[in-house]
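Before a colleague's protein record goes any further, I have to sign it off. I want your independent view on whether this chain really folds as the tokens say. The record follows directly below this note.
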Amino acid sequence: MTSGQGVSIEAPAKINLGLEIIRKRPDGFHEIRTVLVMLTLADTLHVYVDEDSTGLALPNIPAEDNLISRALGAFRKAAPQSPTLGWSIEKRIPVAAGLGGASSDAAAALLAANELARNTLSRGELTDLADGLGSDVPFFLDGPAALASGRGTDLAALPAIDQPVILLVPTVSIPEKTRTLYSMIRPEDMSDGARSTDVKDALSDGRLPEMNDLANAFSRPLADLILGVAKLRRLLHESGVHAFGLSGAGPAHYVIGANACRTLESSGMLDVERDWLDVIRTRTRLTPLHVAALAFHD
């Protein structure tokens, strides 16, 4: 393949429509149940043949935590005859916000690498690589909606839904966020998975879930850890929005559905500039990831 030849691929964000922690497993992981839904908000990843490539560093992300480079490295190890690849990215998804940006970028990198290697690896082999990169990565190989269970890698596809979404992302940094929040989980934060089943049933019927089914096990520990989270939730209630969700381990919150988004927009809350909060308007995504046609990278 010609040096400089490459592909572009969107790497979408996701939200969790509820997240339940059921128990801690003997292997040290937690058993969860959650419904994952992709959004139209997306990074754009460009991957290209570059025999001199050493990868690209992302700001504020240590090299060993750069999932794009790790994904391309894992692909090259599984397909040693594949070309050496370089990459660049247009970042739009807030980092470490519970929106799955790093996992989505990694899945996009695997798909792009496989395209440039003329689909050397099967979908099952790509899924195995994704599983080794992180619990959310396999979801982004498929999507756009799924019930995730076990470690989060046991996936059952669900119908896509078409709904407006407003993301509210507190601009805070939490060192080792997911590990810290898991360590703060108490028995009362855990549940039996029934709410996630209700969310799955709602999407299967083509309707939005009941908002009390969007409970997230990380809600209490996150509010205990970050004062701004309680402030955000108070502002939402004062704006007349009583149904909203926390995505992943946060701190991103979301409002979903035309009525809820209209209530929030008309409240005036979003008209006030706040240096501690980013607001992003988006929609749920109806299609899975797709590699664009071959192009040439300068």
Notes: DSSP finds nine helices and ten strands in the chain. The longest helix spans residues 101-116.
